[in-house]
Amino acid sequence: MNSFDLLPQTVFEADRDGTISYINKAGCQALGYRSEELHGMKIFDLVSGEKRQAAMDRFRRKTEGALTDPSRYTIRRKDGSEFPVMVYSSPVIFPDGSTGLRGIMADITPEKGMEAHLQNEERFRTLFEATEDTMFIKDRDLRYVAVNPAMAELVGIPAERLIGATDRELFDEETAGWIQEHDRRVLQGETVETENSIPVRGRTVIAHVIKVPMRDDTGRTTGVCGIARDVTERRHTEEILLETEERYRTVIEHMKDGVAILSGDRHIYVNRRFLDIFGYERDEVINGRPFNWLHPDDRDMVMERNRGRQQGRSEPPQYKFRGLRADGKVIIIEVSATGMVLQGEPVTLAFLRDITEMELTSQALEAERRRLFDIIDFLPDGTLVIDNDKKIIAWNRAMETMTGKKKQDMLGKGDFAYAQAFYGERRPMLIDAVQGKYPGLEDRYQFMRQSGHELYAEARVRMADGAEPRHLWGAAAPLFDMDGNRIGAIESIRDVTERKRLEDQFLHSQKMEAVGKLAAGIAHNFNNLLSVIMGYASLFQIRLKPDDPGQLHVKEILSATERASHLTRSLLAFSRKQILNMKPLDLNHVVKESKKLLSRLLTEEIRFTVLPADEELVIMADRLQIEQVLMNLVSNARDAVSNAGKITVRIEKTVISSAFLKTNGFRKEGPYAVISCTDDGAGMDEKTREHVFEPFFTTKEPGKGTGLGLSMAFGIVEQHGGYIHVESEPGKGSVFSIGIPLIGKGMDNPEQKGALEPRGGSETILLAEDDASLRAFTKNVLERYGYTVFEASRGDEAIERFMENRDTVELLFLDVVMPGRNGREVLDAARAVKPGIKAVFYSGYTDDVILRRGLSGGQFRLLKKPVSLEDILLTVREVLDGH
């Protein structure tokens, strides 16, 4: 049952267009309709005659809140009879969110009920709407039939919901009991005045209540009219001031805070501390100019808040302002103020504290904190700071760049959120290790060391953004306050990826340089020996008849020396000290022709495939050295597949970008011809990949590998201005890629020259060679073929011999590197006195600055050791003949 059905007056509800949605039982009886007949009717359709249009207009204005006063109408019943009513209504929001009007329709035919006592609309409106005290009217059933806004605010329930309610629905059982007991006394004709504590909305209100009976024209009591005033603050203040004034006066006088009581703008009391704070005498404050202790710029604000508080407005209970001492010094005051009633008058009770020093200290600390955080923000290393709860309190710009996480998205976050920005997971980092023990954390770093409270570490990290792994260096330390209490921690992180890459390149180049010098020295001496062996074998071959069985032995000797010379050339290429025979080559053609040779390195169980490019790829290269690289790569792949697997050599074109150069440290960008050798063997782990091109590094058993194959390939490719790169994972095979710059079209294809017979001559030659065996062989060959030879074992000796025989010597045959003077210096000394002298140089390597700087032109030829008999004779003859 709706509670409105219990009321004797007509209660109705209508939506915004006036359609009746509810009318109680009393209304149905008064109008003569059934409830279902009224539902759907317009409320103003009940108004008789010419007042209907006015009723429609007032209804609209009521729903908009433009009208609040009651309305008087003549209502027509279902049977056609009419009667006057007074309608009290107000806007309402229904549970479904729609709006409309709810009202009471009072029959005023005999001027009955409570309206007779109000006499007119103005008194009703003044009584119920204007007064700040709580007002209410109840019927004989002790249900509220009218309440003012103050009543609704007191209980925290809208006025429309109070209509028809009883006190037992609003208060606890005990409170409702004595309220209704008083109401029943009023219904018996008494006027009841009480002061009681009433629990309302979680607090206790002390209310002074006066209740009088409502009577009709016959004198019959029809209800209860009451007015209540909240005297809680007054009674509380009175109790404090009256009951404890003497007891606490001494305490207040000696409080550390200033205390002031103000009535209006006048001070009626200030304690001793107040006077000390502002430097005034009591009489100057009590009887002097009001608020003279306020800074002029803050005076209006403080005075306005004081007045508002005494007038009952809501004002901030605590705030700061600037005070002005009697000596003119500006101070900062923190005030806590409240309004109260003292001897029936509203006053302000204020507690004041001088916080000047604390505020200045706080401002200085804040400025220092901001400076510190500004410094942190501009540090080049990524820096974060956390508190003891592991919440981020600083995240600088370098951190934003490193992780892609903005400061505003990170500040205040906890639960290892800083680690998630790096690793994509929440876990301890170095900054946590300075605050506690985390077993296993050291395993995540390549190294970690402690120095006092500080920790230092390095780690290779795959960042949360999925980019290439980065090498990070970090330093972390705890933070302490002035008392030595730990308040957090700081970590600085530096991306040293580029530095580590450069360090690795430098170390690698140093190792390569050291081994290269060793290889070059060995190759040079070895070439001298091979030259002697090859030369004397050639002489021996000439002496034998063509059908002599010894010819086979000599050929094997020459073949072995030729293979040995290839080895020394590879060593020199690895050390980048070999002069390469660079010519334009079509890489497709070279690889295709090498396929048969490469196939001989493999067993039948290995599937070997060569996939040439679809276009001509011309490079500038030494064919012999490129073939050597292919052999080394295929041999390495053969060992990886254990003689049973698949090896694919692919040739293709690619373009190297500047980003790739920066990452991998190669020489220049542009188009490259790429040879990739792919196998499906065991693959390599990261540690093996890092050392795979180092000289003498091998994973094979002792005696089964020299560790020079890939390092030679590395040196040859480097000398060609290219790059070599490996991709491999355990169990997924390997891909070695070699890139050599393309030079475009126009490959030279010189016709093969026919074999030339070596010829001798009668000219005089100066031979300078520090190796005695090679010098003896070379002199033997030249003299055998008709030449006159002067010999020298040192550079300075060669100059002396030339000066002695300069008129007859027509050719200088010089070793590049000799004791005393090098070959270039010998040539310069000879040309100083005989400018047209011709020269032939020969050497096992060319790693001397003199050769590279000085022999860029002129009438000379360069032979590479080891040299054969034919090489010596043909070259000498061509130079002497001017070819």
Give a description of the structure.
α20 (587-599) crosses α21. The strands form seven sheets. Strands 17-16-21-20-19-18 form a six-stranded antiparallel sheet, with helices on both faces. A five-stranded antiparallel sheet has the order 2-1-5-4-3. The chain is elongated, with a radius of gyration of 55 Å. β20 and β21 (486-495) form a beta hairpin. By secondary structure, the protein is of the alpha+beta class. The chain has five domains: 1-109, Beta-Lactamase; 234-354, PAS domain (Beta-Lactamase); 365-495, PAS domain (Beta-Lactamase); 580-741, Heat Shock Protein 90 (2-Layer Sandwich), CATH 3.30.565; 764-880, Response regulator (Rossmann fold), CATH 3.40.50. The protein has 29 helices and 33 strands. It starts with 9 loop residues before the first strand and ends with a helix.
Record keyword descriptors for this entry:
883 residues, alpha+beta, Beta-Lactamase, 5 domains, five-stranded antiparallel β-sheet, 27% strand
At a glance:
The chain has 883 residues and is an alpha+beta fold.
In the sheet with the most strands, the strands line up as: 17-16-21-20-19-18
Q: Indicate the overall shape.
A: elongated
Q: Count the helices. How many?
A: 29
Q: Would you count the extended β strands for me?
A: 33
Task: Find the CATH topology of the largest domain.
Answer: Heat Shock Protein 90
* CATH superfamily (homologous) name of the largest domain: Histidine kinase-like ATPase, C-terminal domain
What structural class results from the helix and strand content?
Answer: alpha+beta
Query: Regions with pLDDT < 50 over 5+ consecutive residues?
Result: 111-121, 748-755, 846-853
* Share of residues in strands: 25-35%
Helix content: 25-40%
How far apart lie the N and C ends?
129 Å
CATH class (first level) name of the largest domain: Alpha Beta
In the CATH hierarchy, the architecture of the largest domain is 2-Layer Sandwich
Number of structural domains: 5
Radius of gyration: 55 Å
Largest sheet: 6 strands, antiparallel
Question: Mean pLDDT, rounded to whole units?
Answer: 82
